[in-house]
Specification:
single chain, 146 residues, mainly alpha, 6 helices, globular
């Protein structure tokens, strides 16, 4: 089980780096103004950090897929989480709702929304750890004969 979560984390990192590279390439082709090494480094670091936070919040979906014996259960849970994250962030509680934190950290809400602080980041880490622990526990104890 640890190998599956490790591979998923590596894929999230690689996809974030691919996204950053493509964004920088397109920005160079379009000759967008405002380029500087510190700006690029800060943007890429924020993107990779947001991808890491987002990867942590997906671990409960592994439990949904496992318990539901297929990916459709995880897709249903994902739709519910996305809906809840949007509503909760709009109500102003996004910085402490684990599934809203990656987007807010990335700055997609603009300067109007407060960025997540240490409590929100801690909740993301705890959510990721709980998802890994619950999924591992399910795989160790579930009846896999049916």
């Amino acid at each position: 089980m640890a190998a599956k979560f490790t591979v998923a984390a590596i894929w999230a990192l690689l996809l974030a780096l691919l996204l950053a590279g493509l964004g920088l390439l397109i920005g160079a082709v379009l000759a967008l103004p405002g380029w500087s090494a510190p700006t690029v480094a800060a943007g890429v670091a924020r993107l990779v950090a947001a991808a890491g936070l987002a990867a942590l919040t997906t671990t409960p979906l592994a439990l949904a897929a496992s318990a539901g014996r297929g990916y459709l259960a995880a897709v249903g849970v994902l739709f519910g989480i996305i809906f809840a994250a949007q509503i909760i962030a709009a109500l102003g509680y996004g910085p402490v709702f684990p599934w809203s934190v990656p987007g807010l950290y990335a700055g997609i809400a603009g300067v109007v929304q407060d960025p997540p602080g240490p409590p929100g980041l801690l909740l993301v880490v705890l959510t990721g750890a709980a998802g890994v622990a619950a999924t591992t526990g399910w795989w160790n104890r579930a009846d896999h004969t049916r």
